[in-house]
Specification:
By secondary structure, this protein is mainly β. The chain has one domain (8-108): Beta Barrel (Thrombin, subunit H). It has one helix and nine strands, in the order ββββαβββββ. The strands form two sheets. The protein has a six-stranded antiparallel beta barrel. A two-stranded antiparallel sheet has the order 2-3.
């Protein structure tokens, strides 16, 4: 279904915030790469038109992807980098629960 969308797909890197153990020691908190996917990023009125009103206040765009390509979990507040621009996940949702399209409203990343 996602492959039927017109236009170019863009590379997106997804990150989670947390700590890792290294040599038995708990390390400092850091962003850890979850994975990279090809996505569509819609901004402006294209994004506003498909997102619930409750997400529009902070909305910077909407990422559309094929859930079949996911091999990790996308959580609220994960970081996403598309075209060197950093975003935060507002909420990832499988549209209609059908496993065909994942919609992820994003806001500009703030440290």
């Amino acid at each position: 279904m996602v492959s039927n969308l017109s236009g170019e797909f863009e590379a997106a890197s997804f990150y989670s915030w947390g700590r890792a153990f290294t040599d038995g020691e708990l390390g400092a908190e850091t962003w850890t790469l979850l994975g990279e996917l090809s996505v569509k990023l819609w901004t402006g009125t294209a994004a506003d038109a498909i997102v619930s009103d409750r997400y529009k206040v902070d909305l910077a765009g909407v990422i559309i992807l094929d859930p079949d390509e996911l091999n990790f979990t996308i959580a609220d507040e994960n970081k996403v980098v598309v075209n060197s621009v950093e975003y935060s996940v507002i909420h990832a949702e499988d549209i209609g629960g059908q496993g065909k399209v994942m919609q992820i409203p994003v806001k500009r990343f703030k440290q």
